[in-house]
Design brief:
By secondary structure, this protein is an alpha/beta fold. The chain is built from 23 helices and 23 strands. The longest helix is centred in the middle third of the chain and has 40 residues. The structure holds a DNA duplex. It holds the Pfam family Macro.
DNA sequence: GTTCTAGAAC
DNA sequence: GTTCTAGAAC
């Protein structure tokens, strides 16, 4: 009987058992999940798979239940590895639960396309679901899916929407010892989509609109948490297993999806491959010990920074060894975890933002050779070769060299990687130079040195950054001889600064567009707090101090209650301080580092849709008050204010704040990007088009209805007060304009 | 983003 | 003279 802590007295002799029902389409990674946990866990698990249970033939649900029961009788925990997509399918398995046996669901809600492509590609799948047929099957199944709910009888439900969350859940379950249990509750569920599109046309029949209240949580399930467990004695569990920052348990990630990733951006992260275990054939058991021990030693020094061990496949032996050993040592898995992905595309393909990556280099620090080294040099191009050459010509085993990437480097632009740390481990491969001939005494020492050098290197990057920020902050304090800002009116909003971001704005020449004021010794982590924004083209743009107001509201909406209409987990709704029309509100994304359309990528699609839906919800309310209004929802191509915000603006443009050409043209030329179009483009191309030609904002003034030209703003305004010509066809299409059904 | 204001346009 | 714009400062 294994005993981990003081709670043994309260735990049954058998230990705690679980039934974990995987819920997900074919290709969502259910079997991989089970195998990873079973491989790493100290608890005995049995995977019940309907595809294999029938001895070659497809099995039945009854067979699954029978063998689940017998495994449970033997004191084992059970994975139910079948799709379990609808409630009816799950009901039978829920009956397996009892006072001693928790029933959990792990929902692998990965993008449909991903599931399909995995199903299509794989061969020899147990369920014989492969080839072109898979796509149709997956699609059909997903149409029937019903998200599991606590009320069905689960004591815990974990939703995973991307690989990072899947890995987090794997870590959580892998770490379960024989007598541990997990907190009850529902974790990681996305907010329920506010689909208002259909309802909007019937708004007049509806009684209630959204009210300006502060609502914390908008999903029925995510409020369920500790203490509210609906069944079973889950109250005796020991402390929750450590979780990843983007694991579902974390308070701030509840109900969010892509926002989670944006928060990630601010956490300094080193992604590193296992050193010497591939080509250099170092023993995996020994290597995994060294990795875990060295990580354990360094974590306390790293502050909020993270270390992530990366390998290419879920079958990676080194990952599962390390995962198990880290769990055994109770290493904080928000600070250190394993991750499956290609180290050169973690940010774009796997939604894991790493600002530093390690390269398993060769001693000559040359490209090629294969594996990680070849991939990194190839992805980083000549920039990395040159930058490396500046720093070192060769490496001895056990050492590392930190190479800052120039801003022109593709890895920097695409992935946000600011530094590559080359590290050289010991060689156990007789085919390679300097083989240690199986001398593991020396080998382990050198490998330990290698990881130590690597982590020291990462630490030095963090330190430089820290001092750099402090210094810049001090400079600011010295320079700002001017007293309190003299701006009036909204001064409160404008002057509130958290601290750091003020430094950039005071020093940078604004908007010149091409200054990359990052010297080689000044690394960056995420780019959001710095107030510097990296655009698609790799240029940086500095946000002025006045441009920070939305950022502060997004981070601390509760401090600005007067200006805020609604606070949700991922979005804040507020009145535009200088409305350009009778109704003009902003739907502000709260994700850190998401400042404008240029920052928007495929991972933000759900957020964009949600912002649109929330906008429509408010439109519905406004139309209820005045059915004559017509609304347009969209983004400015190049906003003046930092923090992605969707304008919801009525088309009367009747406002004293609409004063100049720029105001008009920013809402009435292609500079204004309709939300519907943005969503479609991101869905199709993974990014939004931007029309940020300066010329657009200084175009001649034309009526947005009849397209007549006017010499100046006052004349234009007097014209639009009376113009009743129907809107141009372009605006009437695709739902660009939102209006009451029975108004003109 | 707004405010302020010089100077162009009328 | 007044109105309006546009650029700089914040």
């Amino acid at each position: 009987m294994e005993v981990d802590d003081g709670s043994e007295a309260r735990v049954e002799m058998k230990g705690k058992q679980s039934v974990v029902m995987l819920v997900g389409a074919p290709g969502s990674g259910k079997s991989t999940f089970c195998d990873a946990v079973i491989g790493a866990s100290r608890r005995t698990w049995v995977r019940i798979c309907q595809d294999t249970i029938g001895n070659g033939k497809a099995g039945t649900k009854a067979q699954c239940i029978k063998s689940a029961l017998s495994a449970l009788n033997e004191g084992k925990s059970v994975f139910i590895d079948r799709c379990n997509l609808d409630r009816e399918q799950r009901a039978e398995f829920l009956k397996l639960g009892s006072a001693q046996i928790d029933v959990h669901a792990v929902v692998l809600d990965l993008p449909t396309q991903l599931c399909i492509s995995r199903s299509v590609k794989r061969t020899g799948h147990e369920g014989n679901l492969q080839g072109g047929k898979a796509a149709a099957v997956v699609n059909r199944m997903l149409q029937k899916k019903e998200s599991p709910k606590l009320i069905e009888g689960f004591s815990r439900i974990t939703f995973c929407h991307n690989d990072a969350e899947v890995q987090a859940a794997m870590g959580t379950y892998s770490g379960l010892g024989p007598s541990d249990s997990l907190l009850p509750g529902c974790f990681g569920q996305k907010s329920q989509d506010a689909k208002v599109q259909v309802g909007i046309m019937k708004f007049l029949k509806k009684a209630e609109g959204p009210s300006p209240v502060v609502s914390k949580v908008n999903s029925d399930q995510s409020v369920a948490s500790i203490g509210s467990s609906e069944k079973k004695g889950a109250s005796l569990e020991r402390e929750e297993m450590p979780v990843l920052p983007n694991a579902p348990q974390k308070e701030e990630s509840k109900g969010k999806d892509n926002a989670v990733q944006a928060i990630d951006k601010d956490v300094p992260t080193l992604a590193f491959p296992s050193i010497s275990t591939a080509d250099f054939q170092f023993n995996l058991e020994k290597a995994s010990d060294i990795i875990v021990e060295t990580v354990e030693e360094f974590l306390p020094k790293l502050g909020n920074a993270r270390l992530v061990l990366v390998d290419l496949t879920y079958e990676s032996k080194i990952l599962s060894l390390v995962r198990a050993k880290a769990a055994k040592k109770s290493i904080d898995s928000s600070k250190f975890f394993t991750f499956v992905g290609n180290i050169i595309e973690l940010s774009t393909k796997r939604a894991l933002h790493c600002n530093v990556i390690a390269n398993a280099a060769n001693w000559r620090l040359r490209p090629g050779g294969g594996g990680v080294n070849a991939a990194i040099f190839k992805a980083a191009g000549a920039d990395l070769e040159m930058a490396t050459n500046d720093r070192a010509k060769s490496l001895v085993p056990g050492s590392a060299v930190v190479v800052p990437l120039p801003s022109t480097c593709p890895l920097y632009n695409r992935e946000g990687i600011t530094h590559v740390i080359h590290v050289l481990g010991p060689n156990m491969n007789p085919q390679r130079p300097n083989c240690l001939n199986n001398d593991y005494n020396k080998g382990c020492m050198v490998l330990r040195q290698a990881y130590t050098s690597l982590f020291e290197g990462f630490l030095s990057i963090l330190k430089i950054q820290e001092t750099s920020v402090t210094k810049r902050h001090e400079e600011l304090l010295h320079h700002s001889g001017r007293g309190p800002d003299k701006s009036v009116g909204n001064g409160d909003l404008k002057n509130k600064r958290d601290d750091v971001d003020a430094s950039d704005s005071s020093k940078k020449s604004r908007g010149s567009g091409n200054e990359v004021e990052i010297d080689s010794t000044r690394p960056r982590t995420g780019n959001s707090d710095s107030g510097i924004q990296t655009t698609d083209r790799g240029m940086t743009k500095a946000w002025g101090s006045w441009a920070q107001a939305f950022y502060h509201i997004a981070m601390h909406p509760e401090r600005q209650k007067d200006d805020v209409l609604e606070i949700l987990e991922d979005v804040v709704v507020l009145n535009d301080l200088y409305p350009k029309a009778q109704k003009h509100i902003l739907i502000l994304a709260r994700a850190r580092g998401l400042d404008c359309l240029a920052d928007v990528h495929e991972v933000h699609l759900e957020l964009l849709r949600r912002m649109h839906d929330i906008g429509l919800k408010w439109v519905e309310k406004f139309l209820h008050e005045d059915s004559q209004l017509v609304f347009r929802l969209g983004y400015h191509s190049a906003p003046s204010m930092r923090q992605l915000h969707l304008h919801v603006v009525s088309q009367d443009f009747n406002s004293v704040h609409l004063k100049n050409k720029k105001h008009w043209n920013s809402f009435n030329t292609a500079f204004f990007r309709d939300s519907v179009d943005v969503i479609e483009e991101v869905n199709k191309n993974g990014k939004a088009m931007m029309k940020d030609d300066k010329s657009l904002l200084s175009m001649e003034l034309r009526c947005h209805r009849c397209r007549s030209a006017h010499p100046n703003i006052p004349r234009l305004k007097s014209h639009i007060r009376n113009c009743q010509v129907p809107f141009p066809a372009f605006l009437l299409q695709s739902g660009r304009l939102v209006r009451a059904l029975d108004s003109n």
